[in-house]
Amino acid sequence: MQNKYILASILVFLVGFVSMAQNGTPPPPLPPPPPGLPIDGGIIALFVVALVYGIYKMYKLSIKRVA
Known about the structure:
Transmembrane segments: 37-56
InterPro entries: PID_CTERM
Mean pLDDT: 80
Oligomer: single chain
Signal peptide: 1-21
Organism: Winogradskyella eximia
Keywords: Membrane, Signal, Transmembrane, Transmembrane helix
């Protein structure tokens, strides 16, 4: 029983010693990520594609109603 207390005391001492030994400077912070890609150049093309698709869908729905 005495050996268990001695072993536990040694382990507690060693854990404290090891945790004190890890004193160091932290690594420098990472640089910020690059900015996202702009959508300025493609916004007009996206609008045109959406407009054409909307007209196509309206045309298909109007043909379905007539037939």
